[in-house]
Amino acid sequence: MVLIFGSVIALVGAAMGQTTLQPIVVATVPSSGAVVPAGDLRVSVTFDRPMRPGGYSFVAPHPAAFPNCDRAVVQSPDRRTFSMRCRVQSGRAYEIGINGVNFNNFVSDDTGTPAHPVTINFSVQ
User: Which H or E run contains 2?
Assistant: First the structure.
C-alpha cells in the first residue's frame, strides 16, 4: 500500500513538471579511475539539473587522499557544473567526494533535494 501511494505521488509530481528524484552526477573531470598528469588540474562535477547557487560539498572521505585545492569553487552559468582548481603530485592516488554523510550542500535548485553522494578516485602519473 505504501509503495503504491509513493508511486502515485511520484507520477503526480512528474505530471506537474516536478521531479522528486535526487539530482545525479552526469560527468566528472577527471572521471573516476582516470590517470592524470601531475600539476594543476581543474576538478569539476556536472549534475543532471540546475543546482542551488553558493552551496557545494566537495568532501574528503579519506583526508590524506584529498588533493590540495583552492577554496574558490566556480558554478557554471547554467548552474549544473561546479569546478575548482587543484594541484596533484606524481605517483599519488586521490579521492574526492561529492556530498557525503554529514555534508550535503549540492542540492537541486527546484526542490532543494541533496544530490546522491558520489566518490571520484583518480591517480597521477
Answer: helix 2-15
